[in-house]
Write a structure and sequence with these properties.
It is a single chain. By secondary structure, the chain is an alpha/beta fold. It has one domain: LmbE-like (Rossmann fold), CATH 3.40.50. The strands form two sheets. The protein has an eight-stranded mixed sheet with strand order 1-9-10-8-5-2-3-4, with helices on both faces. It has a two-stranded antiparallel sheet with strand order 6-7. Strand 2, helix 1 and strand 3 form a beta-alpha-beta unit. Helix 1 packs across helix 6 and helix 2 runs antiparallel to helix 6. The longest helix has 18 residues. The chain is globular and about 50 Å long. It starts with a strand and ends with a strand.
């Protein structure tokens, strides 16, 4: 297989947009930790509060709890801007309202890099992707163009959100077709801590302690494509030029 290229460095601000709390922590947050350590600014936008993600907790209890854990998790990797859109967990619909909400956030944050999670039908052979991930990933790709076009969603301009054409790159984390990677050797512990901060969610999945689960998950993700990146622990992305 082809070697993975290093992710571009010609940006200062990134906006990571995903469906649920913990989506970024299954590997991707290691790249975020590396970026913030180098002085770059990263913000998070969560489309839902993950309220339908814990079977043993009612949504009205799970949502606020997962929001708190997401803030704590983001802080572990140097992210202090975390916003939520309040779409309903599990039934996110691809469409104009979602595109508009994401375009608004892009115009507000004015990033050079936008990150989301795999929008393809599968994670790989035999592993179907969720409807929420597919809807959000597609909407992110489209909203990057929407954010730069003054004639799409003109109401955003009326609200003070001027078009932003400065997104240079869109990266899909956990794509089954990775092209680029970020070395996370020096920030593995931060990535583990970020995932472990989703304690309630992890402990609902397994009897193993959250820290142990997080360490195993992050180590597995970081080693999956190391042979294509000089043997280094890495987070991979499928990269699109905007």
């Amino acid at each position: 297989m082809d070697e993975l290229e290093p992710m571009p460095q010609d940006w200062r601000r990134a906006l990571a947009i995903v469906a649920h709390p913990d989506d970024l922590e299954y590997g991707c947050s290691g790249a975020v930790a590396a970026w913030t350590a180098s002085g770059r600014e990263v913000s998070y936008l969560l489309v839902t509060r993950g309220e339908a993600g814990i079977d043993s907790l009612a949504p009205e209890e799970a949502g606020p709890l997962r929001e708190v854990e997401q803030h704590a998790s983001a802080a572990k990797v140097g992210v202090h801007s975390v916003d939520f859109l309040d779409h309903r967990d599990g039934v996110i619909e691809y469409g104009l309202p979602l595109r508009r909400d994401i375009a608004r956030a892009i115009r507000e944050h004015r990033p050079g890099l936008v990150i989301t999670v795999n929008h393809h039908d599968t994670w790989g052979p035999g592993s179907w992707n969720s409807a929420d991930h597919r809807a959000v990933g597609r909407a992110v790709l489209d909203a990057v163009a929407d954010a730069g076009n003054r004639w799409i969603f003109p109401e955003l301009r009326e609200q003070g959100y001027e078009p932003w054409q400065g997104v240079r790159w869109v990266g899909l984390a956990a794509s089954p077709h990775p092209t680029h990677a970020v070395d996370i050797t020096d920030v593995l512990e931060q990535a583990v801590a970020a995932l472990a901060a989703h304690r309630t969610y992890l402990e609902a999945l397994s009897d193993e302690p959250a820290e142990q689960q997080a360490r195993e998950i992050v180590a597995d993700a970081a080693s999956q494509h190391a042979d294509r990146f000089g043997g280094r622990a890495c987070v991979t992305f499928e990269l699109f030029g905007a």
